[in-house]
Amino acid sequence: MPLLRRAQLAALGAALLAAGCLGAPAAGADDVTPPGCVQPGPTLRYLVVFDKGTPEPDADAQISAACGTTTVYYAPIAVAVVTSPDPGFGDKIGPDRAYSAQGESWTATGQSSRKKADETMSAASLLTSTESVPSADLGDQQWDMRQIDANLAHQITEGDSRVVVGVLDSGIDPRHPDLKPALDPQLSVGCLTGKPDTSVAAWAPTTSSHGTHVAGIIAAADDGKGVTGVAPGVRVASVKVVDDDGYIYPEYAVCGFMWAATHGIAITNNSYYVDPWEYTCSDQQGQRVVTEAMKRAVDYANSQGVLNIAAVTNSAVDLTQPGTDTRSPDNAPSHPVRSIGGDCSVLPAAERDVVAVSSVGANQVKASYSSYGLGAVDVTAPGGDVHQKPANGDNACVVSTVPGGYGNFCGTSMAAPHVTGVAALLASTHPGDTPAQLTKLLNQQAKPVQCPSDYDLNDTGAQDAYCSGYASFNGFYGHGMVNALAAVSSGTTPKPQTGVPTTGVPTQTDKGPTGKAMPIGPEQLAAGQ
To answer: What is the phi-psi region of residue 329: left when phi exceeds 0, alpha when psi lies from -120 to 50, beta otherwise?
Structure first.
C-alpha cells in the first residue's frame, strides 16, 4: 500500500479512536484477537500473496497474527483475500505482500462515494429483468456480425454446447430469452468478496447492463428474434467481477480466473481493466502485489486449459508508450499525474498468455477510442465507432442484448467478445486443443489489415494516431481482423509473413510496456470499456 494511503488510514484510525469508535478490545476478546490488534476500524479487504507452496494453515496463521481474517485462500497460487479492521494490517503482514484497492478510496473523513461509469450505462438500459422483450429480428442491424462473416460460419457450425465461455463482467440477465438457452446457472458465480458465491443474487446484474451486452455478442440465440451471437451453440457462465460502483478490484478478477480454472471453463472474456490503477506498476509498492497475484491467477488458469481474451483500453493511447497516467487510482478523490514506465501495464490485457483485442468501426478502421501499440494488440474485431457510419445507415455501435431488451454500445468491450466468440467456434471444431494451440489458430485465421495511409477521423488535417508495423502484424490490428467463417472452414493454414512494412502513416519505434513477446515483424475496460 502506498505510504500516503497508509498514512491516511492511520489518520482515519486515530480520528475514530479519538471519537471513541476504536476502543480497546472488550473483556474476553483476547481469546480471538491477537495482542496489539486495533478493533474495530474501517474493515478493508486485502489481497495477500504468500510464497508459492505455502500451506493454507500457515497462511491462516500469518493472517491471524497480523490482525486479519481469511475470506478465501487460493492454495494453487498462494494468494489470499483477507479482511481486517486494523489500519496496521498491511504493515504487519508485510507491505510488499498485501494491498487494499478499497483502501485507496478512504480518506480521513470516510470512504469516497465515487462511482466508475462505463460506456454501457444509460437511462435507456434500466435493469428491469423480464422475459418479455421485443421479438423483432434485429439481424439486419448486425453489421458487426457480417463484418466477421459470422452468419456464413453458422451454416457450418454454431459451436458446441460442451464449450463454456466465462463472461467475467457485471452479470448476465438470466431471464433474457436470447440468453436463457446458453446461460449455465450451475457454472455461474459472483466474486465481489473475492470468494466464489454461487447464488443467483451474486452473479445476476444489478447496476450495469454491460455483462448482458457482452454475453449476447458471444452467444445470443439464433432463433429469428432479436440478435444472434458469434457462437450461439456454446454455453456461457456469468462470472460477476464488477461491483455496483463499477469497479473491478484485483481480488474480484483473481476469483474469476480461479473459478474458470477449476470449473472446466474453456475461454474467458475480460472486457475491463483491473482497478484502481489504469496502469499497474510492478515497481511500486502495493501495485506489485496486484501484478504478482494477477500473473499467478492468469498463469494458473492457462495451465488448466483456459484461453483468456481481454480488451485493450478505450483511452486511445499507444500502450507501448502511454507517457503519463492521470486517472489513477480511479476510486480516489484525486489523481496525481504520474509517469508510466516499462514496469507498468494494463491488466489483464498485457498478461503474456492473454489475447489482447483492439476495436474497429464499420469501415474496418481502428476505432477512435481504441488503444493500440505494436506488440500490445494481438487481433482486432468490430466494437463500433461513431466516426464510422455503416453504409446502410445502421447504428454505428454494436447492437446486443441488455436486460429487458436490446441496446447499442461502442467500445473495446464490444470488440473482445467477437474474438471470444470466434475462439469458442475454434474450440468447438478443435476439441482438446490447448490455449496455446487455440491462440495460434486465432492468429492464423485473422485477415491482415494494413495500417491506414491516412488516420484522420476528425478531418482536422492531423493524424489522430500512428500505426507501426507490417501488413501482417501491426500496432492497430495485430495479426488482423478475426473471421468466423475462416475459423470454422480452415483455421490451420498459416498466413505468410511478408516482412514488408506498410506505407503511409509514419512508423514509430516499438518501446515501452507491452507485457508481451513480439512476433517477428492490451487495457482498459472496466465494466467499463
So the answer is: beta
Query: Which candidate, 139, 141, 326, 294, places its Cα nearest to that of 223?
Result: 139
Spatial distance between the Cα atoms of 408 and 331, rounded to a whole number of angstroms:
27
Residue by residue, DSSP assigns 284-320 as: STTHHHHHHHHHHHHHHHHHTT-EEEEE--SS--BTT
Closest CA to 147 of 442, 383, 444, 357: 383
Instruction: Give the whole-angstrom CA distance, residue 211 versus residue 205.
Output: 8
- Could you list the pLDDT tens digit for every one of the 529 residues in the chain? 333 333 333 333 333 333 333 333 333 333 455 778 987 778 999 999 999 999 999 999 999 999 999 999 999 999 999 999 999 999 999 989 999 999 998 754 555 557 776 544 443 444 455 667 888 999 999 999 999 999 999 999 999 999 999 999 999 999 999 999 999 999 999 999 999 999 999 999 999 999 999 999 999 999 999 999 999 999 999 999 999 999 999 999 999 999 999 999 999 999 999 999 999 999 999 999 999 999 999 999 999 999 999 999 999 999 999 999 998 999 998 888 999 989 999 999 999 999 999 999 999 999 999 999 999 999 999 999 999 999 888 899 999 999 999 999 999 999 999 999 999 999 999 999 999 999 999 999 999 999 999 998 888 888 889 999 999 999 999 999 999 999 999 644 333 333 333 333 333 333 233 444 333 222 233 333 4
Helix or strand holding residue 359 (H, E): strand 354-360
Cell (9 digits) for 202: 451474486
Rounded Cα distance between 408 and 251, Å, is: 30
Q: How far is Cα 65 from Cα 72, in angstroms, rounded to an integer?
A: 16
Rounded Cα distance between 295 and 351, Å, is 7
CA 223 to chain centre: 29
**Any bridge partners for residue 311, and if so which?**
357
Cell of 215: 454475453
The CA distance from 317 to 319, in Å, is: 6
Question: Which residues have CB under 8 Å from 280's CB, separation 6+?
Answer: 274, 287, 290, 291, 294, 344, 345, 346, 347
79-94: b or e for each residue (b if 16 or more CB lie within 10 Å)? bbbbbbbbbbbbebbe
Verdict on whether the full-model pTM lies above 0.70: yes
Whether residue 35 has a cis bond before it, omega within 30° of 0: no
- Assess contact for 434 and 305: CB atoms under 8 A: yes
Report the 3 state secondary structure along 477-494.
CECCECCHHHHHHCCCCC
The cell for 158 is: 454454431
Q: Which bin fits 159, alpha (ψ -120 to 50), beta or left (φ > 0)?
A: left
